[in-house]
Design goal:
By secondary structure, this protein is of the alpha/beta class. The chain has 15 helices and 13 strands.
Length: 391
């Protein structure tokens, strides 16, 4: 049996947030199963090590509201420091693993520790690349992320292979490196993500009454909720009957304008509901109960909520350029154009007023086929096996 990969879960194993990247990392970990050893860099021990039981429990726990940052309990901090000071730190044995897979956007602290992780593996070093939207849309991105990203993109150069989550992300990364003047590049491939399978009951007709329009995604600047809320207010003022349901974590820094609009709309009695982050079971229920979904994001690295909506037989209103356009190909989507308030209102009003068009899009969505996380893990491992480790 080949030696397992080392799977870096430094961030995901220490946060209860379940935004896009954390969902990808948890799903990939499950699909890899015994083919990967989950590890993290313990900053208190100053060493890479396998995950401990409390970190495994954190990965398995349901989502929670709050910050996306890592949290280390006091006991874990003390234990790590004692191991380091007593000389009992247990770093990974050199050459004990078959390769390295880093699926997260890693911190400067983790970047500085990567040589130790690389030394523990004989095979290729691979990273997933999600997007460079922090540099493409700095006005919609937390300032610390914008400041961090140029260094992160350069740190990716030390890997042997980069699995980008879409063609758009792959092209963006290569363009940046060419602009930077980098000459020794890792192999880069576009490998679209898998998705969680739809439960058997999905695709059933939603309950009767006022249609529910579902929007899944963190409330932050780039996700464009402010424009969505303005569009909905235009339709409600014109007499349209529907409920808007929002699911996702709030980012107070870049989502402040949308959160204020949401507060005002709810105070005025408009039919808008914000559930915040929810469990997987609650999310599936939200998909079942909606008539269709809307995803007004300006740009994405992949667009997981669009794919999940389509896989559940639910039409999706979204932009059809870049990575979102890659997911939208094949049917089931209605374009939002530039995704301004007027374009969103037009598309929403059109679909609300046309049951026949909704039915056509539903048929297209039900005909779509998406790879599972098991399929994705198999493709990723097969490609990783073709890579040669650079010096």
């Amino acid at each position: 049996m080949p030696a397992p990969l080392l799977l870096d879960l430094t961030h995901t194993s220490h946060t209860r947030a379940r935004t896009g990247i954390q969902r990808v990392v948890r799903s990939l970990r499950g699909a890899l199963a015994g083919r990967a050893l989950s590890v993290c860099f313990d900053p208190h021990e100053s060493a890479w090590r396998p995950l401990e039981p409390w970190e495994e429990r954190n990965l398995a726990a349901a989502c929670a509201a709050g910050a996306r940052g890592s949290r280390w309990p006091l006991r874990a901090r003390i234990t790590g420091r004692l191991r380091r000071l007593s000389g009992r730190a247990s770093p990974l044995a050199p050459g004990s693993a078959g390769g390295v897979l880093v699926p997260e956007i890693f911190s400067p602290e983790v970047a500085a520790a990567l040589p130790g992780l690389f030394a523990a593996a004989e095979g290729a070093r691979v990273a997933l690349f999600h997007d460079a939207l922090a540099l493409q849309y700095p006005e919609f991105t937390p300032r610390l992320n914008v400041a961090r990203f140029p260094a992160y993109l350069q740190e990716l150069l030390q890997f042997d292979g980069i699995a980008a989550v879409s063609e758009a992300s792959r092209d963006c990364l290569l363009d940046y490196w060419r602009w930077l003047g980098a000459t020794r590049l890792p192999q880069v491939v576009a490998l679209p993500l898998g998705i969680d399978p739809a439960p058997a009951e999905d695709g059933a007709t939603p309950p009767g009454g006022v249609p529910v329009v579902l929007c899944v995604g963190s409330i932050e600047g780039r996700k464009n909720h402010a424009a969505l809320l303005d569009a909905c207010e235009t339709l409600w003022s014109a007499g349209a009957a529907f409920e808007l349901r929002l699911v996702g974590l709030s980012n107070p820094e870049t989502g402040a304008a949308a959160l204020e609009k949401l507060r005002r709309l709810r105070a005025s009695g408009r039919p808008v509901r914000h559930d915040g982050p929810v469990s997987d079971q609650a999310l599936e229920a939200a998909y079942r109960q909606c008539a269709f979904t809307v995803y007004p994001s300006i740009a994405e690295g992949f667009g997981l909520p669009v794919a999940e909506s389509l896989a559940r037989g639910k039409p999706c209103l979204c932009r059809t350029e870049g990575a979102l356009g890659e997911v939208a190909r094949g049917g089931g989507c209605l374009s939002l154009g530039a995704a301004g308030p007027a374009e969103i209102a037009s598309a929403l009003g059109r679909l609300l007023a046309s049951p026949s068009e909704r039915s056509t899009l539903e048929s297209e969505a039900r005909g779509r086929r998406f790879k599972s996380w098991g399929d994705y893990a198999t493709e990723l491992l097969a490609w990783t096996g073709t890579l040669r480790r650079n010096a």
